[in-house]
Specification:
CATH class of the largest domain in chain B: Alpha Beta
Radius of gyration of chain B: 26 Å
CATH architecture of the largest domain in chain B: 3-Layer(bba) Sandwich
Oligomer: heterodimer
Helix content of chain B: 25-40%
CATH architecture of the largest domain in chain A: 3-Layer(aba) Sandwich
Number of strands of chain A: 14
Helix content of chain A: 40-55%
Number of domains of chain A: 3
Structural class of chain A: alpha/beta
Structural class of chain B: alpha+beta
Shape of chain A: globular
Largest interface: A-B, 45 and 51 residues
CATH superfamily of the largest domain in chain B: FAD/NAD(P)-binding domain
Number of helices of chain B: 21
Order of helices and strands of chain A: EEHEEEEHEHHHHEHHEEEHHEHEHEHHHH
CATH topology of the largest domain in chain A: Rossmann fold
Largest sheet of chain B: 7 strands, mixed
Largest sheet of chain A: 7 strands, mixed
Strand order of the largest sheet of chain A: 3-4-5-6-2-1-7
Distance between the termini of chain B: 51 Å
Shape of chain B: globular
CATH topology of the largest domain in chain B: FAD/NAD(P)-binding domain
Number of domains of chain B: 4
Number of helices of chain A: 16
Strand content of chain B: 15-25%
Distance between the termini of chain A: 46 Å
Strand content of chain A: 15-25%
CATH superfamily of the largest domain in chain A: P-loop containing nucleotide triphosphate hydrolases
CATH class of the largest domain in chain A: Alpha Beta
């Protein structure tokens, strides 16, 4: 039954310095062997021939000659947790690194594990006794529910609609191919070779565009987007640096707006946040001659509509102005935390004064000092409370799903490129390959069955004698 | 109760499903009784006078390879043969033929009448007779009932008052169970136009606990061929060299005649639109679901309002009749509207309508209540085949009839049942779809329903299925021997192709090129020439070479598919109590009660996580 080799990150996300990637299955050793370079003179021996439960330092070579330092833990069958060949890669807990490693091995032939799959295999292979069956079932259930919630959370917004559009384009193409096969005895618009080629080309570039933007951002749309806004000098940058501690590693500029907005990711209590700072804006416009209104408009256009929550930073020892009011008008009060900064200095603003100024008695306000870090914990707690997103746990963290998406999109493109080379008269082969591509897209947002295609045909075309 | 005569098998109905079922059981050695309302309507084509077509042609070839009669019948009575999709790859080529409707009926009646072990009787069945199953008590050797309710079919009771006892009962009721015919606002009870309906069988099934629902289908008017102005139509001739359906037919010798194509126009559409308030489909008079792939003309015009014309196929119903079938304008509009509508078509201005089109509603039994053998889950020794299972089409019906017949005979022989996989045959796809998807609108076969379409071709049905037919005694040894010979030739030819070079390229590579044919290839290798491959074997080798990479890929997929297919799910699992399954999965699994993990995985709403839960549960 079990034949493929599965892979997953088996340490909690974003919380530890060290992380473990685990592979289990018949080709686990072979897959790692292919890309592993041992340190020192131990060199050429195959992993399989090394003693069980041994460890090995070295590096994994992935594409573009990137070398990732790892320690291998070798657990050949049956002395492993799953009773299959298991290899663990211990490495640094940096997200981009883990993501790269994971994708690398998935491309090499491993499959991303389903919720609870390691434990399920352990059970099916007799490693766990019958009394544990219930626990295994719970794990599968909980995992799949969480994945579902996470997926539906993730699959809202731009990413989802792009994937949906790709799927529909593919279904339309396949429908027309199938129409040419299953209804050719009737008067129907048969798809022309040129139309097939154009459609394929269009879909390929659609997917490529999505992949490109996804890769640039390094993130899809996961996590809660918290936008920091406020007047110049209120302390937005300092707050950003406090919330996103490891800035060097994870801050990624957003495509096209590099100078204006920067974004970082962080975890509070298992919740993923993307913190977006609008600090860059201040610096750049200082040099330009632009009105405040213009700046705010630009900010609004680019960032505010996407925000899930707002961190509105005020300078605690300066009085409120019309600038503040203008900004406040652009944001959604119920999803806003007013951050009264600089409480290390003498304060001029009471909470009451703030609420009165903005004419909103239920406004949430928190005091912090971005300089010393006081009050940050309370802010984080409030942020978590305000977010609607589910918590992320060990298994199915968002970037795991992202890696999965990227993988399927990647495969779809590769299949479609091959499809485009098929002679246009071989419609049955074009249909077969386009369907494989659709299956890949389907792995992201739900399978497509032959009935869906037939339904599409019946609703789009007048068939039937 | 009047005395009842005993048979091994009772087949109710003698349509396309009933004929195949009865012939299979009789040929497999069991005394078989066929009960039909009228002997003059055996194998009647209620709708269009044609057999085969896209995906359906593949079904007929499969029926033939298993030892069914349909292919031979159409070969003997066809009046226009066409191979469809010849411009596309061999995987999607399908034979189709116009039948001489009367001749087709006469042919099958003759075959049934001359079949050993087979008795025909005119009877209308009213009730399925059942008992509670018994077992012999180990303590005193007496028979005791093992179930609390009646769960085993023993025969049928007819309107004449007679009862017939059978160890197996096969129901093939077509559109006759509570058939209701609609022409405009007029409603008439009937199983077909001018034929009575069977009013009581479905009630008897309901009493036994079956869920019974309704479906709808329709048919167009028939015209008098002498009143058509054929010069106005586009001629649609048959193939120059008609290709037979049956693997045992050498050549088609009958006279061939053409069909014609005409078009509706804006005037036709206007007539329909003006009278749409008299169309039972739109007034709410018809509630049941009809086939979306075969919509009525009023439906086409409403849903695709932008189209200025629709195609009409004028198909002669035989050589010795003037009746012409008007394919494309299936309708239940009132007679006066049908007349105006027909006369608005160019070339049909003076057409005389011989029979008006009509819609018919009928009872069917949703197929999730069946096992993969087509035996019902609820009542043992009762099989359902054909439209009673929610399908449409002569070919779909015949395929089910044959499978029900074979499985009934195997059960009487106490032999393992015969289930075709989705990877083996369109018949496998058909039955798996029926029992898994539980379609609630008429189900028709399409090639796009088959995952392994490149392997399930009409040209290789003999290689896929004839060994089974032979094993059951439905295929003569002579035919099987020629298949073995063909297989041998194919194997040898492939060997030579894969080791002989011509201009530094393997012959197998040469054969893949589109401009190549067998003659040219054979000219490059004396060994190959010496083999004297039959045309059939040449075709097989050429096709297999063309598709080679794809076939390999599909075979790999089949390996994976079979792993789940071979994991049986015991019938007694109480899915409703498996709380780790999602709620949707619990309900769907409980309804379908799949026989394997593979079938479970194809149920809409059952996720990979649910399959994982089932796997763990099976180990508990």
């Amino acid at each position: 039954m079990v034949i493929d080799t599965i892979i997953a990150i088996s340490t909690p996300l974003g919380t530890s310095l060290k992380a473990i990637i685990r592979l289990s299955g018949p080709v686990a050793f072979r897959l790692v062997d292919k890309y592993f370079m041992a340190e020192g003179r131990t060199g050429s021996r195959k992993l399989k021939s090394r003693p069980a439960w041994s460890t090995l330092d070295g590096r994994i070579k992935i594409k573009n000659n990137i070398l990732i330092p790892v320690t291998l833990y070798l657990m050949p069958a049956p002395a492993s947790y799953t009773r299959e060949d298991v290899v663990e890669l211990h490495t640094f807990g940096a997200q981009p690194l883990l993501e790269m490693l994971l994708l690398h091995f998935v491309r090499a032939g491993a499959r991303l594990a389903q919720p609870g799959e390691f434990t399920k295999r352990a059970f099916l292979n007799g490693r766990l006794d019958l009394t544990r069956a219930e626990a295994v079932l719970n794990l599968i259930r909980a995992g799949s529910e969480q994945e579902f919630r996470l997926a539906s959370h993730l699959l809202t917004g731009r990413f989802a609609s792009s994937v949906q559009a790709i799927r529909q384009a593919l279904i339309n193409l396949i429908s027309r191919l199938e129409l040419a096969l299953d209804f050719s005895d009737q008067e129907i618009e048969i798809i022309t070779p040129r139309a097939t080629r154009n459609d394929l080309k269009k879909i390929i570039s659609q997917i490529n565009r999505l992949l490109k933007s996804a890769r640039q951002q390094k993130i899809f749309t996961a996590g809660t987007l918290a936008v920091i806004c406020g007047r110049p000098n209120a302390g937005k940058s300092s707050l950003f640096n406090q919330l996103v501690p490891d800035r060097q590693n994870i801050v990624t500029p957003i495509a096209g707006t590099t100078r204006d907005v920067i974004e970082g990711r962080c975890f509070f209590r298992q919740h993923l946040f993307r913190i977006r700072d609008t600090a860059g804006l201040d610096r750049s416009v200082k040099k330009q001659i632009a009105s405040l209104a213009c700046r705010i408009n630009r900010l609004t256009e680019q960032t505010l509509p996407e925000a899930n929550i707002f961190l509105f930073v005020l300078d605690g020892n300066r009085s409120l102005t019309n600038h503040d009011r203008n900004i406040f008008q652009k944001i959604i009060p119920t999803r806003t935390i007013v951050v009264r900064n600089k409480n290390d200095l003498p304060t001029k603003l009471t909470h009451r004064a703030i609420r009165r100024f903005f004419k909103n008695p239920s406004l949430k306000v928190v005091d912090i000092s971005a300089l010393t870090g006081t009050g940050l914990d309370r802010l984080k707690k409030m942020m978590v409370r305000l977010t609607q997103a589910p918590a992320l746990t060990t298994r199915s963290a968002d970037f795991l799903i992202n890696a999965r998406h990227e993988h399927h999109l990647d495969r779809a493109v590769r299949i479609l490129k091959k499809t485009a080379a098929i002679p246009p008269s071989d419609i049955e082969l074009l249909a077969l390959d386009s369907r494989s591509a659709l299956d890949e897209i389907g792995s992201i947002i739900g399978q497509t069955v032959s009935d869906d295609i037939l339904n599409n045909i019946f609703s789009e075309f007048c068939v039937g004698k | 109760m009047r005395s009842s005569k005993k048979y091994d098998v009772i087949v109710v109905g003698a349509g396309h499903a009933g004929c195949e079922a009865a012939l299979a059981t009789a040929r497999m050695g069991f005394s078989t009784l066929v009960l039909t309302i009228s002997l003059d309507t055996i194998a009647r084509m209620s709708c269009n006078p044609a057999i085969g077509g896209l995906a359906k042609g593949q079904l007929v070839r499969e029926i033939d390879a298993l030892g069914g009669e349909m292919g031979k019948a159409i070969d003997a009575t066809g009046i226009q043969f066409r191979m469809l999709n010849t411009s596309k790859g061999p995987a999607v080529r399908s034979p189709r033929a116009q039948a001489d409707k009367k001749e087709y009926h006469r042919y099958l009646r003759r075959v049934l009448e001359s079949q050993n072990n087979l008795t025909l009787k005119e009877e209308m069945v009213e009730k399925i007779l059942t008992v509670a199953e018994t077992f012999r008590s180990p303590s005193n050797g007496r028979l005791k009932p093992s179930a609390t309710s009646r769960n085993k079919a023993t025969g049928v009771k007819c309107r004449s008052g007679k009862t017939y006892t059978g160890r197996a009962v096969i129901l093939t009721t077509g559109t006759f169970m509570k058939g209701l015919i609609h022409i405009g606002p007029k409603k008439t009870k009937g199983g077909r136009i001018n034929e009575p309906s069977a009013e009581n069988i479905s009630g008897s099934l309901r009493k036994l606990g079956f869920e019974v629902r309704r479906l709808k289908t329709g048919t167009p008017p028939r015209l008098n061929g002498r009143t058509l102005d054929v010069k106005q139509f586009r001629l649609q001739p048959g193939d120059q060299h008609p290709q037979p359906f049956s693997f045992s037919t050498k050549k088609i010798n009958r006279k061939q005649i053409p069909c014609y194509i005409a078009y509706t126009n804006e005037k036709t559409h206007q007539i329909i639109r003006q009278n749409i308030d008299r169309a039972p489909l739109f007034t709410g008079q018809i509630k049941a679901a009809g086939p979306r792939y075969c919509p009525s003309i009023e439906d086409k015009i409403t849903r695709f309002a932008g189209r200025t014309r629709h195609q009409l196929f004028l198909e002669p119903e035989g050589l010795n009749t003037d009746e012409v079938y008007c394919n494309g304008i299936s309708t239940s509009l009132p007679a006066d509207v049908q007349k105006k509508m027909v006369h608005s078509v160019k070339g049909l201005e003076k057409a005389e309508i011989l029979k008006y089109g009509y819609a018919i509603e009928y009872d069917f039994v949703p197929a999730a209540q069946l096992q993969p053998t087509l035996e019902t889950k609820r009542i043992k020794n009762l099989w359902h085949a054909g439209q009673i299972n929610g399908t449409s089409g002569y070919e779909e019906a015949a395929a089910q009839g044959l499978m029900a017949g074979i499985n009934a005979a195997l059960k009487l022989k106490k032999q393992p049942s015969f289930i075709l996989l989705r990877s083996e045959a369109y018949i496998g796809v058909l039955i798996d779809d029926l029992i898994t998807l539980n379609p609630l609108e008429p189900y028709r076969m399409f090639t796009s329903r088959a995952e392994y379409r490149l392997l399930l071709r009409s040209d290789n049905a003999d290689r896929r299925l004839m060994p089974y037919g032979h094993k059951f005694g439905l295929i003569k040894s002579k035919l099987k021997r020629s298949l073995d010979q063909k297989e041998k030739q194919i194997k040898e030819a492939r060997k030579i192709l894969s080791r002989t070079y011509y201009k530094q390229k393997l012959l197998s590579q040469w054969l893949k090129q589109p401009e190549m044919n067998w003659k040219k290839i054979a000219g490059r290798s004396p060994d190959l020439k010496k083999l004297r491959l039959s045309p059939g074997a040449q075709q097989q080798v050429t096709i297999e070479m063309k598709y080679e990479g794809y076939i390999k890929r599909q075979l790999n997929q089949i390996e994976k598919f079979k792993r789940l297919e071979n994991k049986p799910l015991p019938g007694q699992i109480d899915y409703l109590k498996l709380t780790h399954l999602s709620r949707e999965a619990r309900e769907k699994l409980d309804r379908v009660k799949p026989v394997s993990l593979g079938q479970a995985s194809r149920i809409a709403g059952v996720t990979p996580a649910d399959i994982s839960v089932l796997m763990v549960h099976l180990r508990k």
